[in-house]
Amino acid sequence: MYSNNKLIKALSTITVSIWLSACGGGGGGGSSSTPTTIKTPPANKAPIIESMDEQTVEERQHFTFTASAKDTDGTITNQSWVQKSGIEIYNTNINENTLSFLAPNIAQDQTVVFTFMATDDDGTESQQDLTINITALKNITDVEFADPNLQACVIEAAEQLGENADITSFDGDTALWCQNKEISSLEGINEFKHIKHIDLAFNNITDLSPLAELQSLESLDLQHNHIENLAPLTKLTNLEQLSLNNNKISDISAINSLEQLLSLNLAHNKLTSIEAMPQSSDLKFLSIAHNQISTLQGINNLTALEHLQLEANPIADITDLPVAHSVKSLRLVSTNQDTLAEELPLIDLSPISKLSGLTELVIKGDNIKDINALASLTQLKELELIAYQVSDIQALDQLKQLEKLNIGSYTTPFSFIPKMNVSTIASLSQLTSLTDLKIKRTKVVDFSPISQLTLLKSLWVLNNENTSFAPFANLTQLETLVFYPNGLITENNIDQLHQLTKLKTFWTVWPEAADSLAILDNMPLITDLYIGGSANQQLSDFSSLANRQLTNFQVSGTQLANVEFLSSMSSLKTLQFQSTKALSDISALSTLTQLEKINLWFNEHLSCEQLDALQNALSSTLIERPNSCVLN
Questions:
Q1: Distance CA 330, CA 307 (A)
Q2: What's the CA gap between 240 and 197, in Å, rounded?
Q3: Scanning 53, 403, 497, 578, which has the fewest C-beta atoms within 10 Å of its C-beta?
């Protein structure tokens, strides 16, 4: 049978030949006749199907194959597939030359054969078989794990998923969570080829090789292990979240290929350079805190960053900060609170001024002095500025949207960390949106500017030169007040706080001359109370607290001698008596069975017998005893 095109062509050839014969061939006038020539149409050529190699698919995985066929003397008019042999595949999807299906759940390996058929415009059909091997996945109990702890974790997790859980149960959004299981080897995890989420934090892992095959992984948590080599992660290009903090990593070049990352944590490692940082255009969170990084080369093009943590690095140059309006949170800590960095050059903060979208900023460092660049960060809502060399904070008066502010020097037992050089906080009076303020270890004497911050709910004033309660008197929205001056409070003006009726947490040094807790009657909501004082402090009567429902109560110094008033405090959870030299009888504490913790440090005058009796009575309570006690 011929196609219409081929028939027309053949008839045309015959017609032309007959016409030429009738006309004598178109030559001279001879009378001899020329034989008639009739050409035979060419034979149709069958479609050619490109060779189809044997295929393999795992059970319960999607399979797709597209065949290729051509017709050299016409066109392909029809293509189709039909199953020829093997277990029946019910859910086939055939779209001309494309075959797709979901491999069935099987107990053992199976082979199926599909036949592909291609028909040309002459109706000639060609066929070719495609062999597909369907491999059965191992049951979880059949996977060979080198580490029994990993095996136990996987089996336990599978059991929680139900009776039919198997190696595919962790596909999709189901995570394998094996934190803190003392796992040292990952051999066997490579069988879970389609798993997307694994948490292996807080283990003893050193070798990541078994993870190299898990190319479907989207999130991987390996924090707090003993990892040095990241090479096995190179091909895990679908990773979006990767936590590698608290390991022994010094080279990150192996993960440079991970360009889909949204979150990367490399804190607490041994990095000295970040030039090989993955250049993910979508990276939103990056922590390189607590390393030995001195420059930021390698992150300047991460324009999608929203949260950047740089603390505890010897950074002296922040020129390469990514200039991106998207950056919402930045932590820049050039040194830590245990050492001074006198040899480091001062950091120029001017590159920060370009991060106009910042809403949270932490700056800590011994080599930070000029903060004028902060004036342009008008979107800031939270600022922590711990830098003892700073003496001028006038730039802060532009940050009208600030809600939380923490300024000062490190609060540390090491006396070699100086106080912040700031001696005036007048500019803070402009920050009327503040609800949370901490001022620690400065040279400020006059705290009157904060009296205008009437929205404050939390105020911490620690180790400054002010010794008066007066600046806090009209902060009527306060729920937390912590006030520890450098020296003793000799002026008895605590009664000025009578308007602070919303206080829930009140920690302070009690005025030396005050011998009453009467002011607390105006503060009925207090549940967390600390009263400090020296051995010369006159306060001795605490009985007015008997009906309070405190959860935390601490006393240091004072003339506290009787603790009977505590017997009615059924809500009390933590109790601390330090340096309470007038207290000799603690037997009343034995009835406080709800207590979780008692701290009795620096009370070496207490008898060992009483301490032992207390421990026996409160066997489930953590009791922190003094270093020594009096033997009977």
A1: 6
A2: 10
A3: 53
Q: Alpha-carbon distance 397 to 575, whole Å?
A: 41
Contact 319, 297 (CB under 8 A): no
| Average pLDDT taken over every residue of the chain | 89
Q: How far apart are CA 277 and CA 258, in angstroms?
A: 9
Beta strands in 334-401 (DSSP E): 360-364, 382-386
Q: What distance in Å separates the CA atoms of residue 202 and residue 546, rounded to the nearest whole number?
A: 45
* Range 141-174 burial, b when 16+ CB lie within 10 A, else e: eebebebebbbebbeebbeeeeeebbbbbbeeeb
Tell me which H or E stretch contains 321.
Answer: none
φ, ψ of residue 244 in degrees (nearest 5): -125, 15
Query: SS3 of 86, please?
Result: coil
Task: Check whether 7 has a pLDDT greater than 50.
Answer: no
The pLDDT assigned to 321 comes to 87
Q: What is the mean pLDDT of residues 252-264?
A: 96
Tens-place pLDDT, residues 319-363: 888 876 789 999 988 754 444 445 567 889 999 998 989 999 999
**What are φ and ψ of residue 28, in 5° steps?**
-65, -170
Residue 562 has pLDDT above 80, yes or no: yes
Domain 470-632 in CATH 2.60.120.620? The answer is no
> Which amino acid type is present at position 303?
T
| β-sheet bridge partners, residue 78 | 119
Between 510 and 489, where is the model more confident? 510
Residue with token string 């003893």 = 204
The domain limits of the chain are 1-42, 48-135, 470-632
Phi–psi pair at 220, nearest 5 degrees: -145, 120
How many percent of the chain have pLDDT more than 70? 90
Distances (CA, A) of 191 to 55, 56, 229, 328, 368: 20, 16, 21, 40, 52
CB distance 596 to 619 below 8 Å: no
pLDDT of residue 342: 54
Q: How many CA atoms lie within 13 A of 162 on its CB side?
A: 6
- Exposed (0-12), middle (13-18) or buried (19+): which is 630, by Cβ within 10 Å? middle
SS3 359: coil
Query: What is the per-residue pLDDT for 36?
Result: 67
Handedness of CA 390, 392, 398, 402 (dihedral sign): positive
Identify the residue with better confidence: 187 or 136.
187
**DSSP structure string for 492-525:** --GGGGTT-TT-SEEEEEPPTT----GGGGG-TT
Contact 565, 585 (CB under 8 A): no
CATH code linked to domain 48-135 = 2.60.40.3010
Percent of the chain residues past pLDDT 90, beyond the cut: 68
β-strand 360-364 against 93-95: which pairing, if any?
unpaired
